[in-house]
Amino acid sequence: MSLMLNLVNTFLYMVNTYIIVPTADDYSVSLGAASTVCGVVIGSMAVAQIFSSVYFSAWSNKSYFKPLVFSSIVLFLGNVCYAMAYDMKSLTVLIIGRLLCGMGSARAVNRRYISDCVPARIRMQASAGFVSASALGMACGPALAGLLQWKFKIYMVTFNQSTLPGWVMAVAWLLYLIWLWVSFKEPNRATEVNEAPQNPASGQTVDIGQVENGLAQPLLMDSVDKQNEDEDEEVDESEEAADDSRKPATSIGSAYRLLTPSVKVQLLIYFMLKYAMEILLSESSVITNHYFSWNTSAVAIFLAILGLTVLPVNAVVGNTSAICLRTGNSSWSLKLRC
């Protein structure tokens, strides 16, 4: 249930991010700004997430429950500010609401929970579930915005296609907060270790890498001794790296220094993918309206289809990787194909 709550948090956050995309330009115009200001409104959430990732990462060294509760409260307040900006006629309140939503991003906690608390045998499926939840939220956000086409007033509060996304997400985060408070269980920190298989005969932990290396052992003893020394050095370095990774990152610089070169390359690839995607999504409503005269519903359907295309590819990759991890030691051909 705790893993499910983390995945639901991821899903709701992605819905929260993209539910405003089809209507952000109309909202900006209604407040007296240019339609292209929607890029600032959408991007402000991601800017705030840069800072929230640091303190949420440090906070998750001590607890998972408290950061998720704090995240839900901040996101609730952010969405209320976003919805109230229409009646307050304030673009500043609108952007503050989106900044609060970004400050409530707990995606660092969600990833940390999967890496530390999910058993190794299902960690790949959990990671695939994280990506699937993100992609599904990216598709459901615009689709939900396309359905919220009503316009009415209750007392002095206006409900229309621009403000309804904020009110709907505020209710969603309130319900999630109640579910989280009732069902989430804080994991035992003593169990946050890598689950390596054990040797049934001796009861000692067996490293899968050692089993694989045994298939190609050198014939000369000198080579064996040298290889053992290299392995000892690698183990010492990996243990030091693991200890360093447990330390809380108190700043962006300290977080960057904890990254290995391989992780930096992966993050650069991730950055370029997100960069291209956000350019497409953020200005999609402006471009399609200017050149093709699309309405909000058409933009919502277009963005929903884009989000859904990620799911089948992610399902194939996640299942294939899980098969590789489970059976990679028993078949060389399967390893080569993976």
TrEMBL record:
The chain crosses the membrane at residues 7-24, 30-56, 68-85, 91-109, 130-152, 164-182, 255-277, 297-317. The keyword Transmembrane applies. It comes from Zea mays (Maize). It is found in: Membrane. This is SPX domain-containing membrane protein. GO terms for molecular function: transmembrane transporter activity. It is a multi-pass membrane protein. SUPFAM superfamilies: MFS general substrate transporter. Residues 228-242 have a biased composition (Acidic residues). Keywords: Membrane, Transmembrane, Transmembrane helix. Residues 226-248 are annotated as: Disordered. Its main location: membrane. One of its GO terms (cellular component) is membrane.
